[in-house]
Amino acid sequence: DQEKLQQYEKLSVLGELAAGIAHEIRNPITSLKGFLQLIESSTSTNANSSTYTKIMLSEIDRINMIVSELLILGKPKELKIHKQFISEILETVVTLTRTQAILYNIEIHLTIPSDLSQTCVSCDENKLKQVFINIIKNAIEAMKHEGAINVKVALDNGFVVINIIDQGEGIPKEKLLKLGRQFFSTKENGTGLGLMISSTIIEEHGGKIHIESEEGKGTTVKIMLPISK
Ligand code: ADP
Ligand code: MG
């Protein structure tokens, strides 16, 4: 049946991921081991070992990030579905991400037409928030210095449509095709898991995610979720 198929699909996605994950995690662990050996054997100064510890801490952060993103993907059964106002979810998310955006001189505008203030979706609130945070973080990272991110909400045929529009560097056509694949990232510290996990979560909610982009102009991520009556 439907649920079994979905479960099977998730398991196979996880299976495909396993090889990549092992590789991704082995790299920082190998480097951690190397630095520990250096510290152990060295007669070096404190200055040196503080450089080592900085690198080690950032490698540990990277392992943590990969593992925590994977944990979410690996626990699809734990969806806790409740009826929530989409406006409240977006307001929380925008408040959270603004604290990061301010550091880059980036404004985030949220526009919800007043007749949508009571619109609800059946969702796992935390997972949905995580999706929006992922996508707004990507928008911030794509804009770098300044600009505005517009989050606009509309209705379409029984769906609530959330557009996250940035004025960032955009995505070249050939890269657009690779988005949402495991570990596809153009960032130095990226995991490339954000979009993959986001689309899994949106699909679990019966929704769709669609990305349009123009190089040099910006990107629009469109998320459609079924309205809860
Ligand atoms: P990560 O952010 O860790 O790189 P994601 O899955 O969130 O992983 O995104 C994958 C890649 O998609 C990014 O590295 C970036 O190249 C591209 N991308 C995603 N969102 C945007 C955006 N809003 N503007 C430009 N590029 C984007
Ligand atoms: Mg990301």
TrEMBL record:
Molecular functions (GO terms): ATP binding
Record-annotated Histidine kinase domain positions: 20-229
EC number, UniProt record: 2.7.13.3
Catalytic activity: ATP + protein L-histidine = ADP + protein N-phospho-L-histidine
Source taxon at top rank: Bacteria
Keyword tRNA-binding: no
Entry keywords, A to Z: ATP-binding, Kinase, Membrane, Nucleotide-binding, Phosphoprotein, Transferase, Transmembrane, Transmembrane helix, Two-component regulatory system
Primary enzyme class: transferase
Coiled-coil stretches: none
The protein's name in its UniProt record: histidine kinase
Originating organism: Halalkalibacter kiskunsagensis
Parent-protein residues present: 167 to 395 of 395
